[in-house]
Amino acid sequence: MQTVFDYQKEGSLPILTSYVLLSNSPRRKQLLEFLAPHIQSVEVDERGIEERFMKEFASDDFLTRAAKTCCEISKAKSDIELLPGHIYISADTIVVSDGQIFNKPQDLMEAETMLRSYFGKSHQVVTSVCLRTDHSLDVFYTLAQIDFVDHYPALEEVIQSYIHEKQPLDKAGAYGIQELDPRFVAGISGDIHTIIGLPVAEVSRRIFAHQSFEK
């Protein structure tokens, strides 16, 4: 199973002096702790971008359309003033299940509907990343698959506990894999950090493989 896909690449990395994470996500911040990045919040019209590019990529299969659209959202988040020597890291995560994109649920009822829909099936999680400097652009996405167990009655209490205690409304697809009850998951293919929200190993490889870093 291929898990890493290039989307757009231009230029080459300059010598870096600083990292900037364009996200307020505590999960992404934690995953990049080893870089001690500066945090900068950027707001974009994610649903507007999604609507536009899902139409533009209509000739692709649904998963590829969704993944490319996810990349466009990440890229839009980095459309800011770029300072020399800084690398700006932006990302977006979506869940694709049954030919639909599952974003963050609007309420607990939608969150429960999403969570229940996974049982007995597989679904995909896409995380796109944009690495941008004033001299370069590298946009890619990673893919993971999660297989849920078949539903059985003893899981009802666990489902309700998750919905009402784990704050599913701030998570794409209504769950965070790191806090999901292990009784739900039959298997995972791909990098678990794709599901958490940032494929750290691939981000690090793309920055450091041909780069000397100065702090």
Describe the protein in words:
There is one protein chain. The protein has 215 residues and is an alpha+beta fold. Helix content is 31%, strand content 27%. The chain contains seven helices and eight strands. Strands 1, 2, 3, 4, 5, 6, 7 and 8 form an eight-stranded mixed sheet that branches. β2 (18-21), α1 (26-31) and β3 (38-39) form a beta-alpha-beta unit. α2 (46-56) packs across α3 (62-77) and α4 (108-117) packs across α5 (156-165). The chain is globular, with a radius of gyration of 18 Å. The termini are far apart. The relative contact order is 0.20.
What's the structural blueprint in terms of helices and strands?
Layout: E1 4-11, E2 18-21, H1 26-31, E3 38-39, H2 46-56, H3 62-77, E4 86-97, E5 100-102, H4 108-117, E6 122-132, E7 136-148, H5 156-165, E8 185-189, H6 192-196, H7 200-208
Parallel strand pairs: 2-3, 2-4
Antiparallel strand pairs: 1-7, 4-5, 4-6, 6-7, 7-8
Protein name: dTTP/UTP pyrophosphatase
GO molecular function: nucleoside triphosphate diphosphatase activity
Cofactor: a divalent metal cation
Head-to-tail CA distance between termini: 37 Å
DSSP strand content: 25-35%
Number of DSSP strand runs: 8
What's the helix count? 7
**Average pLDDT level:** 94
The shape is: globular
- Summarize the amount of helix as a percent range: 25-40%
Low-confidence stretches: none
Summarize the helix and strand pattern as letters. Answer: EEHEHHEEHEEHEHH
Which structural category do the helix and sheet elements fall into? Answer: alpha+beta
**Rg (C-alpha, Å):** 18 Å
Let me know the largest β-sheet. Answer: 8 strands, mixed
Function: Nucleoside triphosphate pyrophosphatase that hydrolyzes dTTP and UTP. May have a dual role in cell division arrest and in preventing the incorporation of modified nucleotides into cellular nucleic acids.
Catalytic activity: dTTP + H2O = dTMP + diphosphate + H(+); UTP + H2O = UMP + diphosphate + H(+)
Keywords: Cytoplasm, Hydrolase, Nucleotide metabolism
Family: Belongs to the Maf family. YhdE subfamily.
